[in-house]
Amino acid sequence: MSEGGNGNxxxxxxxxxxxxxxxxxxxxxxxxxxxxxxxxxxxxxLGLTRERIVFVSGIGCAARLPYYMQTYGMHSIxxxxxxxxxxxxxxxxxxxxxxxxxxGDALSIGGNHLIHSLRRNVNLKILLFNNKIYGLTKGQYSxxxxxxxxTKSTPMGSLDYPFNPLSIAIGAEASFVARxxxxxxxGLTEVLGAAARHRGSAFVEILQNCNIYNxxxxxxxxxxxGNRIYLESGAPIRFGAEGExxxxxxxxxxxxxxxxGEGGEDGLLVHDAGQRExxxxxxxxxITFETDGAVPLGVFxxxxxxxxxxxxxxxxxxxxxxxxEGDLETLLxxxxxxxxxx
Amino acid sequence: MIRFAGDSGDGMQLTGDRxxxxxxxxxNDLATLPDFPAEIRAPAGSLPGVSGFQVHFADHDILxxxxxxxxxxxxxxxxxxxxxxDLAKGGTVIVNTDAFSDRNLQKAGYATSxxxxxxxxxxxxxxxxxxxxxxxxxxxxDGITSREAERSKNFFALGLMSWLYNRPIEGTLGFIxxxxxxxxEIAEANTRAFKAGxxxxxxxxxxxxxxxxxxxxxxxxxxxxxxxxxxxxYGLIAASKLSGLPLFLGAYPxxxxxxxxxxxxxMKHFGVRTFQAEDEIAASGxxxxxxxGGSLGVTTSAGPGIVLKSETVGLAVTxxxxxxxxxxxxxxxxxxxxxxxxxxDLLMVMFGRNSESPVPVVAASTPAGCFxxxxxxARIAIKYRTPVFLLxxxxxANGSEPWLIPDVSALPDISTxxxxxxxxxxxxxxxxxxxxxxxxPWAIPGTPGLEHRIGGLEKEDKTGNxxxxxxxxxxxxxxxxxxxxxxxADIPELEVxxxxxANTLVLGWGSTYGAIGAAARRVRASGRKVATAHLHYLNxxxxxxxxxxxxxxxxxxxxxxxxxxxxxxxxxxxxxxxxYNKVRGxxxxxxxxxxxxxxxxxx
Lengths: 342, 603
Fold this sequence. Notes:
The complex is a heterodimer of chains A (342) and B (603).
Chain A: H1 31-42, E1 53-57, E2 72-75, H2 81-91, E3 96-102, H3 103-109, H4 111-120, E4 124-130, H5 165-171, E5 176-181, H6 185-197, E6 202-207, H7 219-222, E7 228-230, E8 238-239, E9 245-249, E10 255-259, H8 279-285, H9 289-292, E11 295-302, H10 308-323, H11 328-332, E12 337-340
Parallel strand pairs in A: 1-2, 1-3, 3-4, 4-6, 5-6, 7-11
Antiparallel strand pairs in A: 5-11, 8-9, 9-10
Helix pairs in contact in A: 1-6, 3-4
Chain B: E1 2-7, H1 12-26, E2 29-35, E3 50-58, E4 71-74, H2 77-84, E5 92-96, H3 102-107, E6 124-128, H4 130-137, H5 146-150, H6 153-164, H7 170-179, H8 184-203, E7 221-227, H9 228-243, E8 247-251, H10 258-265, E9 273-276, H11 280-292, E10 296-301, H12 303-306, H13 310-319, E11 323-329, H14 346-351, E12 361-363, H15 369-384, E13 387-393, H16 394-398, E14 400-404, E15 453-455, H17 470-485, E16 496-497, E17 504-509, H18 513-525, E18 531-535, E19 537-539, H19 545-550, E20 554-559, H20 564-573, E21 578-581, H21 590-602
């Protein structure tokens, strides 16, 4: 264990320092293993000692993750992790608080808490493991399952139109929105780094394969690397095995994939995650395998906005400046008082 | 005993509140009962829109806001109609004749004016043109319309009543300055209306008698008037100071608990963080998250919100973290009657969770008692690492009484110690229990070497690791139950008031305290013997509870529900207790309780 730093004030930890003594119990072949490995490998980059890091989860397969991290952790109630983490983050600004959730946990039962934590811009890093299925309850459709999905609870196909997690986050005023793939170590590590550096709510969708109940749901982008559109701020959006495709924006504001013609990069959309208006990020979130045969990855949106935790701390300071540190005796004697003589 | 009644827009709550303050400063003992509709402004002049405020004051100590007012101030026909039935025969009615128009009479359902048809012959009626006299008194005030002038009529009425009962007026004059300071013309109008009402009383021959009620003999010391919700707020602040833990409140606005959120939001200089959440669930979740981080986590609500917090409370039970859950009870089920009191959430807070999930329950009995109850709830939550329910109700929340301000240095020390970093070689065990309290360590993030994971899944004894072992689960269920049951050794015994050696006991809890005490006085005054006892702890019960209830031949349990505590007492102690139950959304009247006690004593 390398805790205690190296003498120059910096903390030098390794992935091993973040592995807990608990046996990891996901199904063999689950995408969660890959995510856990990347996360443990990334943690030293935070530059924080382990006691300053907390993982909070709700219920579901993904929600088991805190047990495997040698940090503080709470495996809480279905859907409520953002609410619980909000109380913790707001009252303890010295901590780095991470929420681990899934498509059912975040978008069904916990939808309300997710959108409100994003709009408040609480300093939370929210990782949504999207496998488009309910795994822990053994294979019912989820709010991201495609229309018509045949599952145990929808033998004739699901009737629910699916949510697009990134569109929801952007619509909920999220200040940081990104996407990565479970097995894409480099892409996922970069996105985690950007999320950690962002002060405020950071929302990351991780496409995760459930090899038992929804195997291959993301093969078109997990296996077919040519369908990955890596977003890079300041650069024209280009992708494909030979870089032969790109993204353009139409006059109505929507974005779509095109084949690069003789004009090359001319006319291609230049990505800018820092645009204040969320319309560009939203247009990019609408590009899916179903609409364009490709999937954007990386940071869609990253803008600075006042952070809820900071604003609350400032109000406490202001109140103390105005009224002085609260005194109980004075409080109890405030208002009309009178004395009864003996 | 005076009741002020008018339209919900007539300022009756403000008028009653000021009269109460004047009365308190004068030195009378008092108790109040606000009674207002849930609708902010129901249609003007209508029966559902009537808002009332009752003040009971005397030269001796008072236990309830009183059964029957002696004086009714009715600002319109609807207020007269709704309240006249409660007025004692021979009582005084002061009506605002300007509001007795044909249209208002019709809205209140009067075919003829009660002022003219002789239907008020049992009462002393003072017909006063409150509105027009107020407008007349204010005609020289610049910058206000006659409509605005008319709205000052509640201060005219207050001035009149203040004269009638010799109340000191300086406090109200100062209050008007502060409250309306930003609109000097309104402050001027209200001051003039108030003085005009006073002068009218003095000069009008209609009010020949000015009543003098001497100050009550109260224990010496410094007093203030306080409502239940304010006392609860102060109690939470005190608990934060006494424990050294920063207060975190997660709340969602709900009647009648919102005051606590609003008041605590004004206490940021005490380091209080208030979080108005997106819903009741998030409110309790955030409070629990803050408790995990070492704050004094509190969530406040009423019954319809408490049901939504059940899963969080269950999680807090198994995480064994401190959490204070305040239920300001109101009439239900469902939305019920939001502004009316009831005691029907007891079984919900006892049992309204999945599986075996015991939670301590503390109940306040008087408005001022909410202060001590809040500190006590915090003490138990912190010491035993458990969620605690604190029960109040709409009557305590809005009612007020004089409060002997406690000596801060005499308040209990409820501080605790967080777990500290283990010495080399030691392994941290998150569920290793204190031998005496059975509480586990409170290990907060930020402490090196104590990194651990807790959750809703069953935990192995001591290590806290996930465990599905059958014997371990049985052990953990029993340990959690034993921990809560053990609190009985750490709370006061149930006190019995039995001056005459009675064979009948009246056992109550919560806001029926005053009514039971007043009823017992009446019964004793009739030469009968009766004992009373009041439970401030409902889980666990004080350790002598069984002994007390078994030592009486007859036990009567008045409750504003259909017998919830009675069910617990009968089940726990096998005594044949009988109930007195009325669920009307109002406190008991002392007279009806006295009748019920008398009947049982004589049986």
